[in-house]
Design a protein that fits this description.
By secondary structure, the protein is of the alpha/beta class. Helices cover 47% and strands 17% of the residues. It is globular, with a radius of gyration of 21 Å.
């Protein structure tokens, strides 16, 4: 059995889907990786997977460029003849599904991890593209061999309300899974008078980066001994990416300490007291699941995806999106009540073990594959 994973970055495949690929390989599948060319492609190859690079610009709307991309993907699908194609993110879902149907590839799994920039941003370009993308999604998700995987109930309700999918062809699988053996509570938590807070994500405005900086400034002005850390890189391929010049200004203002990309997240999380993500909308945020697996309490927004991870007052706090004052108040609550932090952190670890462990996610995904393959017989 052969499956193609098609995503819009090799970074995504390496950081979010490599464990699933290994799981499938252990069960006899040949997994071929397909994505735009980048520095993570060779890392996928080093793990023993075939990786095919594409000349693909996620932001491109140029008809000639997009037609050339479609032809290239079509050539790959025709040559590989996969039994299953598994597409991640909206552009790959649309292009991959249309091409797969043209080549008679019956088994199509489409994973939409959040509604993305087109649906979360209120700018002119996003609002202009929204109905076009809706119609394309509706056209690509049909057919007996198609299955849609969403990460939260809010996205399911939105897709059903827009008549983009049907309940019998849609599965909700919360997140891409966390390796709870790798991400675990620190053996000896550090003791410090300063509380360390971390926001780890791609540096996109819709992750709530601005609100995080504003909350940091509010608590700095109040004189609280709280250190604000920011980990992650900008994503120039995303229209919502934070400019590097803006990051430099924040560093100069000393409200936050910018760490850049962190390869060893378990080591960093062992030094953190509270994880924060003031996002506007998510699928299920991997960074929060990793933090929760490490026994950290969470402060996040009461929006789709984030509220899948946090139950308010149990394993963290939920605040309104786009509200720096509420975010600052929640972080202050955590600083004032270290015993509550410990209780919530313990509950966060338990929730990950029960619902988000990668073995649970992998088995649910494999069940979708089995469903498709048995129906094709």
């Amino acid at each position: 059995m052969k499956v193609i994973f098609f995503a819009n970055t090799d970074w995504y495949l390496y950081n979010f889907r490599l464990p699933l690929a290994k799981f499938l390989r252990a069960r006899g599948f040949e997994v071929v990786m397909l994505s735009p060319a980048g520095s993570y492609g060779p890392l996928l190859q080093a793990e023993g997977f075939r990786w095919i690079g594409l000349d693909m610009d996620r932001r491109s709307l140029n008809p000639a460029r997009e037609l050339a991309l479609i032809r290239r993907i079509s050539a790959v699908y025709a040559a590989e003849k996969p039994d299953i194609v598994h597409h991640f993110t909206i552009k790959c879902v649309v292009y991959g599904s249309l091409i797969a149907r043209r080549h008679g590839i019956r088994n199509r799994v489409n994973a939409v991890t959040g509604m993305g920039y087109v649906f979360s941003d209120e700018g002119y370009k996003a609002r202009l593209l929204r109905p076009v993308v809706r119609n394309l999604i509706r056209a690509t998700l049909g057919g007996e061999g198609s299955r849609l995987i969403l990460q939260n109930r809010d996205d399911l309700a939105a897709f059903l309300a827009a008549d983009l999918t049907s309940t019998e062809r849609t599965h909700v699988i919360m997140g891409s899974g966390v390796d709870t053996a790798r991400f675990h509570p620190a053996a000896e938590p550090g003791q410090s008078d300063t509380m360390r807070v971390l926001l780890a994500s791609r540096l996109l405005w819709d992750k709530g980066i601005r609100e995080y900086i504003d909350a940091a400034n509010l608590l700095k002005e109040a004189g609280l001994p709280v250190e604000f850390l920011l980990a992650g890189n900008p994503d120039p391929g995303n229209p919502a990416s934070v400019p590097e010049a803006q990051i430099a200004k924040w560093q100069e203002g000393q409200a936050v300490r910018y760490l850049g990309h962190i390869a060893d997240m378990p080591r960093l999380l062992a030094e953190i007291d509270v994880a924060v993500l003031p996002s506007y909308r998510e699928g299920v945020p991997r960074s929060l699941l990793e933090a929760a697996a490490c026994g950290l309490p969470i402060v996040t927004t009461d929006v789709p995806g984030c509220r899948e991870v946090v139950k308010h007052g149990v394993n963290g706090l939920l605040v309104p999106a786009r509200d720096p004052a509420a975010l600052a108040a929640a972080i202050r609550f955590m600083w004032e009540r270290p015993e509550e932090r410990a209780r919530m952190g313990s509950a966060a670890r338990c929730a990950v073990l029960e619902y988000f462990d990668q073995d649970i996610v992998f088995e649910k995904t494999f069940a979708v594959y089995r469903d498709l393959l048995s129906a094709a017989v």
